Automatic annotation (TrEMBL):
Lineage, broadest ranks: Bacteria, Bacillati, Bacillota, Clostridia, Lachnospirales
Domain Calcineurin-like phosphoesterase: 1-217
Protein origin, superkingdom: Bacteria
InterPro entries named among the record's database cross-references: Calcineurin-like_PHP (IPR004843), DNA_Repair-Maintenance_Comp (IPR050535), Metallo-depent_PP-like (IPR029052), Mre11_N (IPR041796), SbcD (IPR004593), SbcD_C (IPR026843)
Name by which UniProt lists this protein: Nuclease SbcCD subunit D
Matching PANTHER family: COMPONENT OF ATP-DEPENDENT DSDNA EXONUCLEASE, NUCLEASE SBCCD SUBUNIT D
Ranges for domain Nuclease SbcCD subunit D C-terminal: 266-359
Main function: SbcCD cleaves DNA hairpin structures. These structures can inhibit DNA replication and are intermediates in certain DNA recombination reactions. The complex acts as a 3'->5' double strand exonuclease that can open hairpins. It also has a 5' single-strand endonuclease activity.
CDD domains referenced in this protein's UniProt entry, alphabetically: MPP_Mre11_N
Gene3D superfamilies, sorted: 3.60.21.10
A biological process from GO: DNA replication
Amino acid sequence: MKLMHISDLHIGKRVNEFSMIEDQRFILEQMIEIAINEKVDGILIAGDIYDKSQPSSEAVLLLDYFLTSLTDLDIPVFVISGNHDSPERLNFGSKLLHKNKLYITSMFHGTLESFELTDEYGAIRIYLLPFLKPAMLRPFFAEPIDTYDEAIKKVIQTTSVDTSKRNILLAHQFIINGSIQPERSDSENISVGGLDQIDASAFKDFDYVALGHLHGPQKIGRDTIRYSGSPLKYSFSEVHQKKSVVVLEIKNKGEITTNLIPLTPKHDMRKIKGPIEELIALGKADAKGMYDYIYATLTNEEELYDAIGQLRAVYPNIMGLDYENSKTQTAATTSINYDLSALSIRSPLTLFSEFYKMQNNSELAKEQEELMEDIFLQSGENSL
């Protein structure tokens, strides 16, 4: 049996105020094609379907298009909620959708919901664990549960998992492997102090664990505990990630292979660096790449007029800009350690001249010094 594992669609997301909806439509259509070409027998979607708990109408319509396209292919689809989703909204009409082989579990009701698929090797049990916080378990268990690790282990311990059969779990949590931490990116919500960490050992009864929550595709502990990652780059900390979907093939128990099939975005997200003249020339020579989402670092020493405007004329989807030159390097490495008691005997012009040199790595010109001296005199400050 072949299954496709995806997660963290974040439909409706905006990155630096740019709507990603058309990029998402492009990549979801690519996923549909992969499902057809790979002849998959099921789709596992491990949370963060939407980017916000109250998704926009265009986000709702895009998800409807995606799920309808998959169910029209008669492919069973299994969905859990992530920390970005509204469980109530995602759960609406879920029971009615079962007849179309769309199985959505967005809320925990005291037991781990599961469904079964069969092939020539027998039954495969698919367990759906929506995003959980310890507080969500209080109505179902008498004993106090304080950590995420305790919460997930408690839910699994109270579930009758037949380990003689093939078992798959969908989960949307932050998983570690002992002291080994997974790769993270800036666009993920991670609790301070590691309070949300869950050890991979909690999943020993499952043959494959389809994870969502982290945006970089990666395995945790073993090849069969895996984050599929997000299908698109959602922050510049992800520029070096290779986005993909996971296609897993399950035969006999313990016989699982995984294949990462790359995704090609409509617009890539990347960083560029150099003098503005060089970056503009490179953009003009790259008819496709000029429309990528760009973060530019300019290395020019001289002051530039409307640098962002110049770059946007070539890179219409530029999202960010900063500078890296001798001035910024000096400012980053220089600190002021004045004796505060001595400040009162230093003239304003002297203090300003030292500050100017620290910021610009050059002395005030004679004309600039004379101008500042006039300003201090007119303001009543003694510049001598």
